[in-house]
Amino acid sequence: MTHDTTPASPAPGARPAAPVRWGVLGTGAIAHRFMTGLRALPDAHVAAVGSRGAATAEEFARTWDIPRAHASYADLAADPQVDVVYVATPHSVHRDAAVLCLEAGRHVLCEKPLAVNAAQAEQMVQAARRARRFLMEAMWTRFAPAMARVRELVAEGAIGEVRMVTATIGGHVPYDPRGRLFAPALAGGALLDVGVYPVALASEFLGEITDVQARAALAPTGVDSQAAVVLTGATGALGLLGCSVEAHIPRRAAVVGTAGSIELADWYCPTGLVLHRAGARPEELEFPHTANGFEYEAAEVQARLRAGDLESPLMSWDESLRIARVLDAVRERVGVAYPGERA
């Protein structure tokens, strides 16, 4: 087994002149996972947390030794000691939370999916453009060192011309009509919760998507409980994608070309890959995380802020909008609409 230790994303160890001051908006499980990654960056300082109530904000602050706890999102957004806010809420309120922060002068890293639909995502991009503030969708897959090596191998022609991307992800979630994953009012469904990962992977390697086909199984509430998606890129390459909240689906992905393929396990934030070249033995490469994988997207944000950029070339506004439009098209094909949207 080969161990490749070449840096493949912004190095989390570089120390700047002054730490970047973070605020965390939302105190759920994903916020705790992000904090684990962020604490691996010596140039990051978590200045404040904001929640919908004082009790949850104060508990999160105690857990992570954060100096200020705000009892509302608005108070966090207005905190002058915060440079950038990580939006860790359910995606049904991403747009409102992110725009609140952007208009208050904060930069924003927003959990995936960027928004419920492309119209909301466009509103977020416009808010960032007006405020001249950084905005990025927290698609941590893009920033994992293993994925950087995948991009290099594809660019080098190691597997020839890309002709197919396959990716599946899913888990069993007990049905609860009022739960986040099944309630239409909360923009529930497998697609937006986990299906955004395979769509984003396919988008990265297929380029412009020219056709979207999909089938889905629907929960009694009308949201998708699992979906199968076929995407066609401009070159005719295909994406074969699957997601589910009904069953545990192996998290496997592959980028397949005319001269080989790259396999990824736990690919939504991988720590290794297997390269198959035509006529050669498989090559296994390992890229262990410094912490839990969230550190790389945070390091990218800090690098972009110090460079004065408003977006990341690895997860640009155009790319997030393209992914959002594909997700909209999938929901249109399978007949899933949320309150306030046209069916």
- Beta-strand percentage? 25-35%
Number of domains: 2
Mean pLDDT: 94
Helical segment count: 9
Q: Could you tell me how far the N terminus lies from the C terminus, measured between alpha carbons in angstroms?
A: 51 Å
Q: How many beta-strand segments? A: 15
**Which structural class matches the secondary elements?**
alpha/beta
Choose one word for the global shape.
globular
* Biggest sheet record: 9 strands, mixed
For this structure, the CATH topology of the largest domain is Dihydrodipicolinate Reductase, domain 2
Q: Nearest-angstrom radius of gyration?
A: 20 Å
Strand order of the largest sheet: 1-15-14-13-12-8-11-10-9
The CATH level-2 architecture of the largest domain is identified as: 2-Layer Sandwich
Describe this structure in words.
β13 (260-265) and β14 form a beta hairpin. The strands form 2 sheets. A 9-stranded mixed β-sheet has the order 1-15-14-13-12-8-11-10-9, with helices on one face. A 6-stranded parallel β-sheet has the order 4-3-2-5-6-7, with helices on both faces. Helices cover 32% and strands 26% of the residues. It has 2 domains: 2-139, Rossmann fold (3-Layer(aba) Sandwich), CATH 3.40.50.720; 145-288 and 313-334, Dihydrodipicolinate Reductase, domain 2, CATH 3.30.360. The protein is α/β, with parallel strands linked by helices and 343 residues long. It has helices at residues 29-38, 54-64, 73-77, 94-103, 118-131, 145-156, 190-206, 294-307, 317-334; strands at 2-3, 20-25, 44-50, 68-70, 84-87, 107-111, 135-138, 162-170, 209-218, 224-233, 238-244, 252-257, 260-265, 272-277, 283-286.
